[in-house]
Write a structure and sequence with these properties.
Number of strands of chain A: 13
GO molecular function, one term (chains A, B): pyridoxal phosphate binding
CATH topology of the largest domain in chain A: Aspartate Aminotransferase, domain 2
Radius of gyration of chain A: 20 Å
Number of domains of chain A: 2
InterPro entries (chains A, B): Aminotransferase_I/II_large, PyrdxlP-dep_Trfase, PyrdxlP-dep_Trfase_major, PyrdxlP-dep_Trfase_small
Keywords (chains A, B): Aminotransferase, Pyridoxal phosphate, Transferase
CATH architecture of the largest domain in chain A: 3-Layer(aba) Sandwich
Helix content of chain A: 25-40%
Number of helices of chain A: 13
Protein name (chains A, B): Aminotransferase class I/II-fold pyridoxal phosphate-dependent enzyme
Shape of chain A: globular
Oligomer: homodimer
Strand order of the largest sheet of chain A: 2-8-7-6-5-3-4
Cofactor (chains A, B): pyridoxal 5'-phosphate
Order of helices and strands of chain A: HEHHEHEHEHEHEHEEHHHEEHEEEH
Strand content of chain A: 15-25%
Largest sheet of chain A: 7 strands, mixed
Distance between the termini of chain A: 33 Å
Chain lengths: 357, 357
């Protein structure tokens, strides 16, 4: 199987002879502080939950998400990771013409191709520092009848982010569906940027969230989607398998969304490290650094002294893995992405980058 | 959502005011000894695995299943519970005409109806004690061209079981696919009854297994299917989501399939309790008890003194839940099913049944 989502640590570990835990993985965008201790302790103290079927209605989990996202519990659908929801939503609305903001996470295009949907890419450009003007986007939308507009907000890999007000403008200017992937939204100010509480009032909005990145739980497979459109929601639910969320994921979810100490500590350190890393990376010779609202930073090797692939391979013996962005449509072989890890790891990354570049 | 798979303890708990853990659940067919302690301890001591993506190739998990089932690792597909595999296999081979051994678990029919497959039911009959003669079945198969034959072995809810030799005879007499659901096979002698090692040599066989029942892990959602037909296997895999098995399930699986002490203890106690319960239930007034190779026993209230539904409701205040089998096509409102719990619980069940019947 070919994997294109950050590092496959299992494969790298067997190839390079390091244990998985030794790698500093700057490529997978996962919060380096691990997950909520409250949630982990609950699992440890209640491990026998593995012997019980999950609640088929996931009532407590949905209550917890509803509080966290400030939207109605009835508007929530649950997925085994955000991936299952992307796939399920696209299959359900079965669009014939989609506008895909690009560069973008590869799963959207993969799912659109499965249903033979025509795809128009709306590119953020490096010469604009990957900033998208909402009015330009809206005039493109108005020119054509798209059934679906896909926006990753903050954008992975560029880091650009629309405000909630701008998203509302976009919603008002289309009769199609707008799917917003908010996988990285918690690394920025959700009051300004998150669209979750718009789902109760906008029937053409679907907001997707995952817990893999901010809550550092890619292992449990817990994603959630928010949608006020009852017909579409019921249709998605009818296509999902019964018990698609395991009991560990359901219990951890109930707890971690309200673990304020975990949330504030993660945000505080990562935002301050983001400022630090953006500044320091900008001092590297021949490297352009793009602003980001996510927990990752897109960089371009303007000097063309080395490709991103070569840079990545040069770093691996130091147990550092970065993301070569050549596979993103709209970027080239000189773009790489790093995420924000712990302060000491970020400093090690900078040290080795300085040596190579 | 309407659930028809044993008890929804969450719903019953909120309806009757008992905590979920207080119920003796004789309806869900789960091994009452919980799961492998080795597997649970591993999770407790390595809880940080939740912060790591699963191995997309699940190499160690497949090795462990391969040893356990005595078949090639390359012939394994993994599902988020057996349910995902039933659904995925049926969608993939897309049969137009299926022979469904009945009465049967409701999921097969549900999935067949989704693809508008014509269904012929081959009923085991109470007057034959639900025993199926392989030669009669084979002559039915020979009369018509079925794309698919579905057999649950041991049969849920009747408890009847084909031997591996009989399954091999069936395989040789059809050009269609044979899907064998071996969810309950570990409660009987797998050397005699299991078909897992036939998959390496028979291209029209798909064996499905789950870990929910024998390994008492419905909460982790781990199922696996065995199929030697490469084209079908690749097609199933391409429809499954990336990372469909969470890291807890993958790690527990690696360990529990080789936990010989858990396996032998479960088999020893449950088989001896099965004999005991079959004998004791047979002494109840007006109740017919059917032989079983599973961890459950089908009973019929011949006296018609009370329906299975009424019996179930009468037992709930004693915190006992049994399965009313009226919803199984081919059974009527006087059939109920009980599974084998711990010795003390089985005796409590008998005590209350004796009072009511």
């Amino acid at each position: 199987m070919s994997i294109n989502h950050g590092a496959n640590l299992y494969g790298l570990s067997s190839k390079y002879g390091f244990s998985k835990d030794e790698f500093m993985d700057f490529s997978s965008n996962i919060n380096p502080f691990g997950t909520s201790n409250l949630a982990k302790e609950y699992v440890i103290n209640n491990i026998d939950m593995v012997s019980m079927y999950p609640d088929p209605d996931y009532i407590n989990l949905k209550k917890s998400i509803s509080n966290y996202c400030k939207c109605l519990a009835e508007n929530i659908v649950l997925g085994s990771g955000a991936t299952e929801l992307i796939s399920s939503f696209i299959k359900t609305i079965n669009p014939s013409k989609t506008l895909l903001l690009s560069p973008a996470y590869s799963e959207y295009e993969k799912e659109l191709k499965k249903i033979n949907c025509s795809i128009t890419k709306y590119f953020a450009r490096s010469e604009d520092d990957f900033i998208i003007e909402p009015n330009e986007l809206i005039s493109t939308i108005n020119k054509d009848n798209y059934d679906l507009i896909i926006i990753c907000n903050p954008s992975n890999p560029t880091g650009f982010t629309f405000s909630k007000t701008q998203i509302e403008d976009i919603l008002k200017n289309t009769t199609g569906f707008v799917m917003i992937d908010e996988t990285y939204i918690e690394f920025t100010d959700t009051d300004i940027y998150s669209s979750t509480n718009l789902v109760d009032s906008h029937k053409n909005l679907f907001v997707i969230r995952g817990t893999s990145k901010f809550f550092s739980t890619p292992g449990i497979r817990l994603g959630y989607g928010l949608i006020g459109n009852e017909d579409i929601r019921e249709s998605i639910n009818s296509n999902l398998d019964l018990w698609n969320i395991n009991t560990i994921a359901a219990s951890m979810g109930e707890i971690m969304f309200s673990d304020k100490s975990f949330i504030s500590h993660s945000v505080d350190v990562i935002l301050s490290e983001r400022d630090f890393l953006i500044n320091e990376l900008s001092t590297l010779n021949g490297v352009k650094v793009y602003q980001s609202n996510g927990n990752f930073i897109l960089c371009e090797i303007k000097s063309k002294k080395i490709t991103a692939k070569e840079l990545r391979e040069n770093l691996i013996p130091n147990k550092i893995i970065i993301r070569d962005c050549a596979s993103f449509d709209g970027l080239d072989e000189y773009f790489f992405r790093v995420c924000i890890l712990k302060p000491s790891e970020n400093r090690l990354l900078l040290k080795h980058l300085k040596e190579i570049l």
